[in-house]
Design a protein that fits this description.
139 residues; alpha/beta; Nucleotidyltransferase, domain 5; 6-stranded mixed beta sheet; 3 helices; 17% helix
Length: 139
């Protein structure tokens, strides 16, 4: 079994083009217009494994799967059944995605917001070890 760690996040690239999928991020220090790419990167080598451009809302997409789950599925589809560990931020975190990754023999590490509806009340009530850290474990 391989010990390969992949991380998934967004990458914003400056762009002066005029198109309908340019992103303006008011909370970023540099408020330029940017193209957004979803990226999968190997943690050890720092090489990009796969990337997908964000092209705006897709009206033809199946609505039974959320956008973050769909992005992760597309980015790591070729890594299934190999024991990869996937790390992602709270934008991608969902119970459906965690169950799907477990079925595909991938482990995950990620953050999740306390206000997510699929998070059990017992997990929301857990005491924090540090000011910004909350640990939950399942078997």
């Amino acid at each position: 079994m391989l010990n390969v760690y992949m991380t998934i996040d967004e990458q914003l690239l400056p762009c002066e083009a005029r198109c309908n999928f340019i992103q303006y991020m008011a909370n970023k220090p540099d408020k330029l217009l940017r193209l957004k790419f979803w990226m999968t990167v190997d943690v050890d080598s720092k090489y990009s494994y796969k990337g997908l451009p964000y092209l705006g809302k897709d009206d033809t997409k199946d609505t039974s799967v959320s956008v973050p789950t769909d992005v992760v599925m597309k980015l790591i589809r070729t890594l299934f059944k190999h024991g990869y560990n996937v790390t992602y931020e709270n934008f991608f975190a969902s119970l459906d995605l965690a169950i799907w990754l477990a079925k595909e023999k991938c482990s995950l590490v990620g953050t999740i917001r306390r206000n997510r509806r699929e998070l059990p009340q017992a997990a929301k009530a857990k005491q924090q070890l540090h000011e910004t850290t909350l640990f939950n474990f399942t078997q």
